[in-house]
């Protein structure tokens, strides 16, 4: 993962691929190609992938000024420039460790240009929701030969996330085989994602997807499904009679949510705020209701963010007006706030019947009945449906094994998407 210059309006420190991961990468790729003619490395960093592979010619493209720490092999060259400016479609293999940049941080004009490019070259349509590494995978497909191979270090999430579906559909239409090697452990410090080595073999016509798990020392074992278990990944579904809604994003929790101490400090009364939760982590595992006692003990008295300011109201108190006037420009200079006519006038969500954590480590997320009618914010989902179904939903969701049906996010951390939760809710309400 490297710093991306203003081509993508994103900057971050370089994180180079560890040497043992480079070795594992070439070990895996050698299972698909014993030797290679030409190799193109997109986002080559200091050129460390130029060592260890069997190829006749290597060209590394790097947008940052990363001087090689050691001499490159005689058949390898490193060139500085933008990977998306590379011409030609005659590479035997396109490899790389592309930047793990979320789509929120990529400037829209660039996204539109590259989406138009791939629509013309690969007949694939994207709508601006894909993360940057997905575009690198598409670039590898575009620049490689008809029987070439694309192999990149990517987040594992692309095998199931809706934002990468156009890429998966292209692969399926073309009949190429895909092998994905998911790392069991975190291999990049400070990068909260499950890494994998994804190999797209364009010489294959079976259309087969294979999934493996690999340890940091290179030991590989096979897995049966994308989920990493024998069970299928939860499908994505639209809203039904019972449905879920992601947490409110008012602009910045720093401004719009307060602790009890912050509320008192700013002179706000309880009529200026709604109770809210930004996380279910403070609640014990055996807690099934967010009632007044639980709210007071685990949120208000524990110093957690527990109040959502009522800045969306048509009439707000002098005290809340004073608080909002005191917010500095840097704190309110978020994309969400700057797009509004009145920076603090967010649109509140309806109150959910159940609150569901979006992330968990074992079995399933925390789920509680929303007795005090708290607003769900950020990483907390809310569920909606007939009042008569609330108790049934709570019991069924807490008994459902989400762990074996979702893709691993980072380390032991797992996340469920809203539309995946919709599919479970639909089954329960049916």
Number of strands: 20
Radius of gyration: 24 Å
- What's the story with the biggest beta sheet? 9 strands, mixed
Annotated CATH architecture of the largest domain: 3-Layer(aba) Sandwich
Q: How many separate domains?
A: 2
Counting H and I runs of at least 4 residues, what is the number of helices?
A: 12
Quick structural gist:
This protein is α/β, with parallel strands linked by helices.
Write structural notes for this entry.
The chain is of the alpha/beta class. It has two domains: 19-223, Rossmann fold (3-Layer(aba) Sandwich), CATH 3.40.50.150; 243-429, no CATH class. It has helices spanning 19-30, 108-122, 132-143, 165-174, 253-256, 260-265, 292-300, 318-325, 329-332, 335-338, 390-399, 418-429, and strands at 36-42, 55-62, 76-80, 91-96, 144-155, 177-183, 195-201, 209-214, 220-223, 243-245, 257-258, 273-277, 307-309, 354-357, 359-360, 367-369, 375-376, 380-384, 408-410, 413-415. The strands form four sheets. A nine-stranded mixed beta sheet has the order 3-2-1-4-5-7-6-8-9, with helices on both faces. α11 crosses α12 (418-429). 39% of the residues are buried.
